Amino acid sequence: MLLVADSVGLVADPPSDQAEPTAAAERAAEARDRVHFEEEALEHADQLYRIALRLSGSQQTAEELVQETYLRAFRGWRGYRPGSNLAAWLATILRNVFLDEARKQSRRPAQESFEDTSEYYLYNHLSEAGAEPQEAVLNRLSGGAIAESLGDIPPMFREVVVLVDIGDFSYQDAADILGIPIGTVMSRLHRGRRALKQALASRASEDAS
Fold it and tell me: Which of 19, 51, 60, 192 is most buried, most CB within 10 Å of its CB?
């Protein structure tokens, strides 16, 4: 038996087998943490799917995006900081997955410009649609029509609208996900909502004609 000196005298070296229970306990704790993380992460599946569907415009693509998002999240779960916004962390991964797929398909979202138009564009456009009440025209717009209309919005505005209005993220969360200032989020959201109104108004006008 090896002896080591302390301030009092010679004491026996601690048994080496004490390290094994400690390592086992750490592995068990990590396993519990991972299970808890996965359970909590899966609670946001519906929210992620809504975002993916509106970004991609395809149910199949949305399912694939969400699946890949969770694969990446589970592989890199240690990168999540407990106590922070898990939904925003997952949405950031989802956006990266979406952009990666866009690059593969040579469809990388372009930073397009978009000119502001009249704040009352929707009202004026619907007024020209005919005698049918505007509320009735808008009520007949399906979720599919909204999804298609979102597809007509420049990507840099669409992703902000999707995150805030569909994903229910705050301006700050959206800014963190997209890596842009909160002021930019608010500006793009305002312009994106206008663009969506224009697209919906155009569709409503076609339906009423």
Answer: 51
Residue closest to 70 by CA, chosen among 41, 99, 98 = 41
> What span, in angstroms and rounded, lies between the C-alpha atoms of 5 and 28?
34
Statement: the pTM of the whole predicted model exceeds 0.85: no
Question: What domains can you pick out in the chain, each with its CATH number?
Answer: 29-104 (1.10.1740.10), 121-208 (1.10.10.10)
- Give every CB contact of residue 101 below 8 A, 6+ residues apart in sequence: 61, 65
User: 95 near 159, Cβ under 8 Å?
Assistant: yes
Q: Rounded to an integer, what distance in angstroms lies between the CA atom of residue 140 and that of residue 207? A: 9
More confident residue, 10 or 80: 80
Instruction: For 172-205, give the DSSP string.
Output: HHHHHHHTS-HHHHHHHHHHHHHHHHHHHHHHHH
User: For residues 127 and 184, what is the distance between their CA atoms, to the nearest angstrom?
Assistant: 32
Task: Give the pLDDT confidence score for residue 25 in this predicted structure.
Answer: 82
Q: Radius of gyration (Cα) for the chain, nearest Å?
A: 26
DSSP state of 4: E
